[in-house]
Amino acid sequence: MKFETENNFPGETFVTRKITRSVAKISLGQQESIELGNLSALRDWGHAREYVEAMWRILQHDAPDDFVIATGKQFSVREFCNLAFAEIGEELQWEGEGVEEVGKNKNGVIRVKVSPKYYRPTEVETLLGNPEKAKKTLGWEAKVTVPELVKEMVASDILLMKSNPMA
After folding, report:
1. Residue-wise pLDDT tens digits, 20-78
2. From residue 102, how far is each of 39, 96, 157 by CA, in Å?
3. Is the pLDDT of residue 14 over 90?
4. β-bridge partners, 102
5. How far is CA 130 from CA 39, 43, 116, 135, 149, in A?
6. Residue whose C-alpha is closest to residue 99's, from 35, 43, 42
7. Sequence-ordered list of residues with C-beta below 8 angstroms from that of 126, at least 6 positions apart, any chain
8. Closest CA to 115 of 29, 39, 30, 23
9. To 5 degrees, how large is the angle CA 132–CA 138–CA 140?
10. Cβ partners under 8 Å of residue 60, min gap 6
11. Strands 34-36 and 110-114, how do they pair?
């Protein structure tokens, strides 16, 4: 499945999209770095396409019930950055801590900076869902891995930035 418009992924206010858009711009020389908040925040990221399938299965279920739709796996924002930059051939080296932390490429160019303005006042350090009930009852489970998701998002955003650098 190809994603050719920006509407197929989360908006740029979502950290995943902010990262992949920035990585795309960096790969095309349109941007040098990205500013983020808490790099240690852990999230359970999954593919929207699979989540829509899960919702459809819930609607087909005979009786109303509550389900957790999740991958059951966590990645930090820092790990997501590592995966995204790897898609453009850059390996990040992390230095410092907290708001002083930066991610540099092999040439020492700072690609990721931390800014206090992106820290949420009520930051939840870890979000992890347990999808066991959905698997047992609905036969649903996430199959797209986070590395696959990142690869797809970065490729899509590179195409978008090539055709619309102002996006």
Report:
1. 999 999 999 999 999 999 999 999 999 999 999 999 999 999 999 999 999 999 999 99
2. 10, 6, 23
3. no
4. 95, 113
5. 23, 13, 31, 10, 19
6. 35
7. 41, 42, 74
8. 39
9. 65
10. none
11. parallel
Residue keyed to tokens 């020389």? 29
How far is the C-alpha of 18 from the C-alpha of 11, rounded, in Å? Answer: 8
List of domains in the chain: 5-163 (3.90.25.10)
User: How far is 95 from 88, CA to CA, in rounded Å?
Assistant: 21
Q: Scanning the structure block, which residue is given the tokens 């990645």?
A: 75
Q: Which of 146, 127, 147 is closest to 44 using CA atoms? A: 127
3-state helix, strand, coil in the chain (%, to 5): 40, 10, 45
pLDDT digits (tens, 9 = 90+) for 106-144: 999 999 999 999 988 887 889 999 999 999 999 999 999
CB 92 within 8 A of CB 110: no
